[in-house]
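Ops channel
N.P.: pipeline sanity check, posting one input/output pair.
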């Protein structure tokens, strides 16, 4: 088998998977099977590339881990990729509808998505990269590709408080659903959308909720129909809130909060530290990608999105570095077209 597919072999799209080979080969490997990663794979495939997509989790893994029954703030057409319509029964799509949509898009384009393969190393140079990934059993899988697109998102890496007790089993940096917290004392840390939505959902399902936020009020970016609801629950005393405050210590059955009036010790069963997430900066650096000093933005061409490492492109929220509120599915989904245009030129497609 030749090292890379010949041009005439790539004319029929989509391509069948290369199964049973110890070293898989392609023109382009996309790291990350989120909406932006899938959009990049579709556009590269349309351009005539043989494409593979690897993800350490399931398809659109971050969306899968959103709270059950979550309603998107955006409209369905702004989540569309690959020119496939996203139709919903309501004005705004649900998490379940989004998962179904991206499964169908993946099936439509017959994308070669390898789920549960965690990319560990990317070495080599433009036109000849070697990638090693491990599966759930820890077995290595080796790939050889011409170009790499990194679209790993940020949701897998939670920001930490770095306080005593944060590693206790009662502490989570993610919120799934309210039922396990019924009739318990729950502290929610944070003041943005995730914390606001979780606090209201927990209260409505019978939890005793205390919200702790370092600022003086709920963040102004909280969705316009969520913010007044939460503020009214706090005003009515249905949800307790400590502003200008921080959790100082987490114990097995309590938390200690630092407030403007001094420390407060509260009985506690669970802590949800919903204070945001960040990209995997170490992984980006391991490939040689330079990051800006203050915001950890990867150095890249603003048009082609090729990083300072020739042949490695960045896409999606990681382009914004620590400013994760600048890029969402709605605008990150167009990165695939930018990259595909550059691939056409450099791969002579």
């Amino acid at each position: 088998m030749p090292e890379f597919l010949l041009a005439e072999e790539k004319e029929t799209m989509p391509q069948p998977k290369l199964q049973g080979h110890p070293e898989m080969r392609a023109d382009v490997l996309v790291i990350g099977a989120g909406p932006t990663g899938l959009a990049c794979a579709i556009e590269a495939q349309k351009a005539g590339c043989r494409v593979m997509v690897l993800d350490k989790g399931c398809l659109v893994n971050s969306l899968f881990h959103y709270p059950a029954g979550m309603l998107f703030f955006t409209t369905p057409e702004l989540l569309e990729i690959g020119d496939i319509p996203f139709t919903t029964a309501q004005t705004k799509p649900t998490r379940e509808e989004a998962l179904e949509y991206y499964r169908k898009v993946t099936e439509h384009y017959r994308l070669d998505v390898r789920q549960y393969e965690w990319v560990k190393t990317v070495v080599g140079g433009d036109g000849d990269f070697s990638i090693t990934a491990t599966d759930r059993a820890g077995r290595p899988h080796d790939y050889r590709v011409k170009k790499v697109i990194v679209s790993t998102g940020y949701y897998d890496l939670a920001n930490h408080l770095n306080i005593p007790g944060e590693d206790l089993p009662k502490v989570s940096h993610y919120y799934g659903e309210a039922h396990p917290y019924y009739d318990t004392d729950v502290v929610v840390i944070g003041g943005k959308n995730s914390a606001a939505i979780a606090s209201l959902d927990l209260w409505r399902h019978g939890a005793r909720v205390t919200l702790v936020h370092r600022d003086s009020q709920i963040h102004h970016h909280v969705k316009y129909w969520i913010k007044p609801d939460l503020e009214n629950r706090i005003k009515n005393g249905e949800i307790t809130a400590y502003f200008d405050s921080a959790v100082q210590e987490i114990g097995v059955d309590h938390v200690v909060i630092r407030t403007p009036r001094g420390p407060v010790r509260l009985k506690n069963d669970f802590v949800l530290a919903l204070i945001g997430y960040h990209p995997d900066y170490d992984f980006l650096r391991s490939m040689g990608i330079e990051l800006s000093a203050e915001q950890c933005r990867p150095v890249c061409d603003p048009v082609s999105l090729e990083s300072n490492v020739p042949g490695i492109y960045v896409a999606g929220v990681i382009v914004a570095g620590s400013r994760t509120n600048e890029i969402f599915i709605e605008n990150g989904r167009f990165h695939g077209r930018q990259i595909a245009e550059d691939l056409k030129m450099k791969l002579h497609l």
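N.P.: looks fine end to end. The chain has a mean pLDDT of 91.
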